[in-house]
User: What shape does this take?
Amino acid sequence: MELLAAFQFLTLLPVKRSFTAEQVGRSSVYFPIVGLVIGLALAGMNWGLGYILPAAVVNVLLVLAIALFSGGLHLDGLADTMDGMAGHRATEERLAIMKDSRIGGFGAIGLALFLLIEYITLNNIPGTIKTQLLILAPVLSRWAMVNSIFVYPYARPSGLGKAFKEVVSLRHFIFATLVSLTLTGVLFRWAGLIIFAGVWLTISLMSLYFKSRLRGLTGDIYGAINEISFVIVLLIALLLVYNHWLL
Assistant: This one.
C-alpha cells in the first residue's frame, strides 16, 4: 500500500486509491524506488527519441518530462522556496510567502535559471554515461528528500510534509539509503560514491541553511531539495568527466 501511495504522491500515475496520512508518511521509504521507475522512463525516452531527433531537442523534451512526471510538484516547491528565502524577512513572513500559491518575481526568475542549468547540463553529458545518469539522478534526488525528512525538524505545526516527518523512522531511512547506495555502486562503482557524497553534502548544507532561517524544513523545501539534488548529480558527474576521473 505504501508503495502505491508513493507513486500517487510523487507522480501523475493514475493510482485511484485513498490512503491515510500515516500510509502517505510511510511511503517515503519507497521514494528511491519511485525515482528508479522515473529514471528508467527517462532513459527509455532518451534512447527512443535519440533515433529520430537531435540531442538538443531530446534534452528539451527530457526537461519537460522531468517536470511532468511529478506534475510540477517539486518545481512549485522550488519556486516557493526561492520566494520565501529572498530578502531580509522574519521567519513567519517567510513561511507565509512560501504558503502563498502565487509565484513571485524571485521564484519565477530562479525557476527559469534553474531549468536553463538543467538543460545545459544535460546537453553536455557524454552519451556514454547519459543513460546511467538519467536512471541515477531521480533515485538520489528522491533519497535526498528522505534524508532531509528524517534528519531535520519540520518548521510548521501542520502541513502535508508533517505527515512524513511524524512517521519516518531510522528503519525507513536505512532502507532508502541502502537501495540508493546499491544502485549508485552498480551504475558508477567508485565514482558513484563521490556522486552520492556530493549530493549528501549539498543537501546537508542546504538543510542547515533553511533550518537557520525557518527553524526547520517544509514540504516546499523537500521539493526544492529534490530538484536541486537532481541537477547536482548531473553536475558532479560532469565535473568528474571534465577532469578525466570518469570515462
